[in-house]
Amino acid sequence: MNEDFIRFENVKKIYRTGEIELTALHDVSFSVARGEICIIVGESGAGKTTLLNILGGMDSLSEGRITVDGEEISSYDAKRLTAYRRSDVGFVFQFYNLIPNLTALENVEISAKRGREPLDAAETLRRVGLGERMSNFPAQLSGGEQQRVAIARALAKNPKLLLCDEPTGALDYRTGKAILKLLQDSCREKGMTVIIITHNKALCAMADRVIRVKSGSILSEERQTQVTSVEELEW
Ligand SMILES: Nc1ncnc2c1ncn2[C@@H]1O[C@H](COP(=O)(O)OP(=O)(O)OP(=O)(O)O)[C@@H](O)[C@H]1O
Ligand SMILES: [Mg+2]
Fold this sequence. Notes:
Elements: E1 6-17, E2 20-32, E3 37-41, H1 48-55, E4 63-68, E5 71-72, H2 78-87, E6 89-92, H3 104-112, H4 121-127, H5 143-156, E7 161-165, H6 173-190, E8 193-198, E9 209-214, E10 217-223
Parallel strand pairs: 3-8, 3-9, 6-7, 7-8
Antiparallel strand pairs: 1-2, 1-4, 4-5, 9-10
Helix pairs in contact: 3-4, 3-5, 4-5, 5-6
This protein binds adenosine-5'-triphosphate and magnesium ion.
């Protein structure tokens, strides 16, 4: 195991809006090993999305250092950051962010094309239970189905790093569980490193590592030796 596949060192993020400064992350340090499932929990406004966006190369940090797979992404210029975002990171957003005028299959294909060793788009959609809905547009799908397309989109790229911001927030219990199982299986089969943000503390049991965030700081970082499979989780 590579203990430091992801490493945050003293990361600080300050948002400036006009005269107002808001420190969203204070001195955040933690590591995640390759192939782990890491769950990030914390109350609303704690800085979870900020942390994930910075890790995914979608936002910049104010101070500190971040390395991923031995590369210092926090020193990347715009061009390298774009390449990193495109090929190495799969992102599942809190509110799907599908392209409305592309079908489910096209949404997944466009992302798969960017991966270095992508999975088959249609097959990935079948795996999330949407084999029959591939030619539907996002507006013709329920919220839960759209989220499953979003997850298929991120998985099909077969990224090194799969970042999920409340991936089951919009899903019913059963669908949510199926999606989490898929994330857990992908992590194990493909060796993807998966980071999941959630408000649901019961999900912590499925993680190899749990990071608790409060008011922009790390409250605790725990490596779990006992991991529960998603099928056995109840909440
Ligand atoms: N682009 C931005 N500009 C200014 N402030 C921001 C920006 N994005 C986030 N913030 C602020 O940074 C803090 C952390 O926000 P963040 O979205 O990371 O929280 P969160 O833990 O993801 O919350 P939630 O659980 O509600 O999604 C909040 O106070 C938020 O208002
Ligand atoms: Mg958030």
